């Protein structure tokens, strides 16, 4: 273990001393007015109930918002903003902080006028209202991560964006309630030559993607509820497709139509987009699965280290192939690794939270995390990834991220070879 990795004994001592200082009244010489003087909020009545019928975060948390990168896209309707990962904990993304990615703005759909149609190679074409779906037996609840295939896309050419919100914030993880897609497909009766499904959105982009029928039957969902309440408009209200572990683009929002066919459609989003140009001029196509990935969210450029001594490093790991098995953290650019503490539920195809309690002596750190999933897949370094994929790609960058923590705690996005 290098001197830059966790030194358990030093941490215990530092923590012990800090505790002792408080307990023995070492600070009593300079009484803390916040403790000795009664504060305004202790003297007057607060707002009554119903001051804020739909609750919102404290006004002191106003900085915790989705943010966009203005120069990234020419219009806000076909654009993206990013989840503030460095402000969150646990594994669930609050609904109002889930990144948004739209190709034609947020559709405003009256739920009473929304329909879902299933047609094509089926015995019985069907049209469902939202009420029909909510009365359908067999509703399920699942937590899944959704990662845009373009997450970390700017980083293919080197370290670009200064903050995990911007490098890794095209991911969210919420609870969905809805129906297994299989239940609806079975009611329609997919013909034996029905091998593909086309999902279409009701937004102005009319987004379409081809999905193999095996995946549709295995674990896809049509969901109308996230984190216990109706889907947010940005996330596809009133109905979206959930395609666990697969690239976000396939999770069609404002879902209106499912067509069954015998071949993929090769629409725009699976030909000119969402394919990866390799160095030799060929392209990878149908790269649906999001491979294992992780990022340290704290410290990171928007969340620098504030103090020497005991610190808590934390981050997120996920895999589109299954559950996260292990996460290793390096504080010295990948020379030495310590296995992080995974805490909270470890659900397949869901974000997984990890921590490393460490003692910082003010030295420069090169912080990295490396995820492993239960198939044995290990998150690659960026050099390993480029050796296979070249540098023409936008999508599917799951390389190991490096943050440089300087002596003053300020943190920067860097790459090391
Ligand atoms: N569905 C429709 N109808 N229109 C869209 O523009 N964007 C896709 C997908 N589904 C899109 C869509 C892309 S590229 C992604 S990454 C996810 O939705 C983003 O989901 P989110 O906005 O809930 O984060
Ligand atoms: Co996307």
Can you walk me through this structure?
- There is one protein chain.
- The protein has 417 residues and is an alpha+beta fold.
- The chain has three domains: 3-42, no CATH class; 70-284, Oxidoreductase, molybdopterin-binding domain (Sulfite Oxidase, Chain A, domain 2), CATH 3.90.420; 293-414, Immunoglobulin-like (Sandwich).
- The chain has eight helices and 23 strands.
- It has helices at 8-23, 33-36, 40-43, 130-135, 164-168, 181-188, 213-218, 382-389; strands at 79-80, 101-102, 115-120, 126-129, 140-147, 171-180, 196-201, 208-212, 221-226, 229-230, 240-242, 255-261, 276-277, 283-284, 293-298, 309-318, 324-330, 338-339, 341-343, 352-360, 365-373, 402-405, 411-414.
- Strands 4-3-12-7-8 form a five-stranded mixed sheet. Strands 5, 6, 9, 10 and 11 form a five-stranded antiparallel sheet that branches. A five-stranded antiparallel sheet has the order 18-17-21-22-23, with no helix packed on it.
- β13 (276-277) and β14 (283-284) form a beta hairpin.
- The longest helix has 16 residues, at 8-23.
- The radius of gyration is 24 Å and the shape is globular.
- Residues 1-27 have low confidence and may be disordered.
- It binds ligand MTE and cobalt (II) ion.
- Ligand MTE is lined by residues 98-103, 146, 148, 172, 201, 203, 205, 207, 234-235, 248-249, 251-254.
List the helices and strands and how they pair.
Layout: H1 8-23, H2 33-36, H3 40-43, E1 79-80, E2 101-102, E3 115-120, E4 126-129, H4 130-135, E5 140-147, H5 164-168, E6 171-180, H6 181-188, E7 196-201, E8 208-212, H7 213-218, E9 221-226, E10 229-230, E11 240-242, E12 255-261, E13 276-277, E14 283-284, E15 293-298, E16 309-318, E17 324-330, E18 338-339, E19 341-343, E20 352-360, E21 365-373, H8 382-389, E22 402-405, E23 411-414
Parallel strand pairs: 3-12
Antiparallel strand pairs: 1-2, 3-4, 5-6, 6-9, 7-8, 7-12, 9-10, 9-11, 13-14, 15-16, 16-20, 17-18, 17-21, 19-20, 21-22, 22-23
The chain binds ligand MTE and cobalt (II) ion.
């Amino acid at each position: 273990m290098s001197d830059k990795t966790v030194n358990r004994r030093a941490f215990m001592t530092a923590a012990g001393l800090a505790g002792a200082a408080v307990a023995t009244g070492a600070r009593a010489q300079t009484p803390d007015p916040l403790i000795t003087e009664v504060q305004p909020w202790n003297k007057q009545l607060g707002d009554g109930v119903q001051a804020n019928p739909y609750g919102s975060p404290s006004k002191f948390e106003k900085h915790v918002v989705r943010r966009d990168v203005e120069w990234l896209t020419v219009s806000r309707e076909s654009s993206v903003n990013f989840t503030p990962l460095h402000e969150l904990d646990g594994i669930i993304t609050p609904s109002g902080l889930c990144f948004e990615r739209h190709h034609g703005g947020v559709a405003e759909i009256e739920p009473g006028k929304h329909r879902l149609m299933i047609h094509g190679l089926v015995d019985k074409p069907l049209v469902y209202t939202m009420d029909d779906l909510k009365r359908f037996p067999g509703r399920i609840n699942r937590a899944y991560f959704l990662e845009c295939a373009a997450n970390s896309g700017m980083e293919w050419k080197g370290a670009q964006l200064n903050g995990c919100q911007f490098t890794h914030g095209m991911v969210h993880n919420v609870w969905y309630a809805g129906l297994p897609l299989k239940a609806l497909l079975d009611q329609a009766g997919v013909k034996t030559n029905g091998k593909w499904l086309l999902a279409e959105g009701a937004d102005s982009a009319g987004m379409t993607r081809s999905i193999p029928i095996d995946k549709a039957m295995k674990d896809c969902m049509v969901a109308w509820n996230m984190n216990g309440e109706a889907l947010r408009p940005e996330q596809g209200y009133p109905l979206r497709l959930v395609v666990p572990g697969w690239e976000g683009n396939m999770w069609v929002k404002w879902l209106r139509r499912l067509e069954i066919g015998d071949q993929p459609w090769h629409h725009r989003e699976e030909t000119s987009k969402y394919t990866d140009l390799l160095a030799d001029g060929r392209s990878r196509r149908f790269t649906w699965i999001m491979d294992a990935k992780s990022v340290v969210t704290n410290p990171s450029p928007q969340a620098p280290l504030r103090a020497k001594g005991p610190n808590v490093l934390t981050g997120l790991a996920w895999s589109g192939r299954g559950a996260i098995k292990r996460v290793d953290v390096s504080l010295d650019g990948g020379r030495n690794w310590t296995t992080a503490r995974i805490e909270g539920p470890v659900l397949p195809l869901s974000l997984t939270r990890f921590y490393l309690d460490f003692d910082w002596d003010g030295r420069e750190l090169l912080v990295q995390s490396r995820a492993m999933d239960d198939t044995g897949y290990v998150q690659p370094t960026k050099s390993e990834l480029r050796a296979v994929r070249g540098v023409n790609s936008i999508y599917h960058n799951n390389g190991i991220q490096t943050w440089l923590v300087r002596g003053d705690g300020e943190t920067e996005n860097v790459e090391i070879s």
